[in-house]
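Can anyone check this?
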Amino acid sequence: MGCLAEMKKDERGDAIVEATILFPVMIMIFAALVLLAVYLPARGALQRATQYAATAIATEISDTWLFFDEDTMSYYWENNKKNLDNVYVALFSGTGDIQTKGEAIVAEMEGRSISSKAGELLVHCHVADSIVYKEVVVTAGREFSIAPLDFSLLWFPQTIPITVTSTALVANGDEFVRNMDMAADFANYISEKFELTNIAEAISTFGNTTKSLLGW
């Protein structure tokens, strides 16, 4: 009994056992912090670049007479009306080569950051047309590397993909009014064709009758 009691009180080696258990956990936490320290700035830089590109393209498509020069990365006014696209011509001819402009702006803005850059930068720009408004959508993605760190033994990947998307609305007053008129005309056509007005009145009458029966 005396020897057993002495063995229970003997705490030699406990620190080694605890370190053996905690050391892998601490290494994984450290690895996760390192990944976040690399990932978050890279994603933030790419998000800023895509938002800048979307805003610049949307401003240029809008009726503000403002244009963006991707070579100098600055806005300028177009004072000569002859150089402006007619709103109806632009409606049928598209919005120009926004893909090239978007790629140039995103690459330049991301290049100004100090975040990690690896792999090929892929940029996709398009204009989403809805019934009421237009929206410029810029999506960019790349893979960044955590080299020279190597956490492959802990099942951490050496490269992590980043994909971000930014949008900006096109401010075109004439086109907005025209689209609203088209939407209103279409709604009236559907209402008359399917007699939705009568259905709405029937539903309203049924609701009022139900309320009176329930004493509401």
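Reply from J.R.: I decoded it. Residues 14-61 form the longest helix (48 residues).
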